[in-house]
Amino acid sequence: MHALLFLLALSPSVHAGDTAPGFSPDPREAKALAKARTDGVDVQVALPRRAEALQAGAATYASRCTVCHGAESEGDGTAAVALHPAPADFTDVARWDATSSGLKRWIIANGIAGTGMAPMGLSGEQATDVLAYIEVNFAQH
Ligand code: HEC
Question: Residues 140, 62: contact at Cβ < 8 Å?
């Protein structure tokens, strides 16, 4: 009984990392993204629609992104439960559109400091292809 009360008393701190969707408590993230914006990466880059590019993007997504962002890109991959903030839900089109394709490509290369989004080590083309795949299949307008 005492052990149970102890656990109950602890549980609020266990969940202290929980945040509202879209809110990140880490100022390093805002700083890194602000720097990226002033570095001139915050531009729209064309995303390919060729079948080979979308197939390459699908393969990259399955092997490198699904674990966090989820098979249907709803931010619910198997690792998502441990991550605060949670992985982005790419079916949230308002969020998808709020970040330019150039900045999303920068995020894939550089990650977002203080979050589970690590630098992914992809080439520029691989990053562009995976963004095209996500946009065509999940971030549908
Ligand atoms: C280890 C987990 C993890 C993996 C693997 C991962 N991501 Fe993320 N990703 C995250 C998290 C967590 C965030 C949310 C960060 C935040 O809210 O600030 C994120 C955010 C993003 C964003 C920014 C979305 C936005 O505009 O808010 C993009 C773009 C992105 N990820 C693309 C990818 C792509 C593409 C891959 C695969 C090549 C990938 N991520 C792999 C965890 C991951």
Answer: no
Q: Which residues line ligand 1 (CB under 6 A)?
A: 24, 29, 60, 64-65, 67-69, 79, 83, 85, 87-88, 95, 99, 104, 107-108, 112, 115-117, 120, 130
pTM for the structure as a whole = 0.83
Angle CA(82)–CA(105)–CA(79) in degrees, nearest 5?
15
Ligand 1, atom 32, residue with closest C-alpha:
108
d(CA 14, CA 112): 23
Residue spans of the chain under pLDDT 70: 1-28
Domains of the chain, earliest start first: 21-137 (1.10.760.10)
Q: Before 85, cis peptide (omega within 30)?
A: yes
CA of 14 relative to ligand 1 center, distance in Å: 23
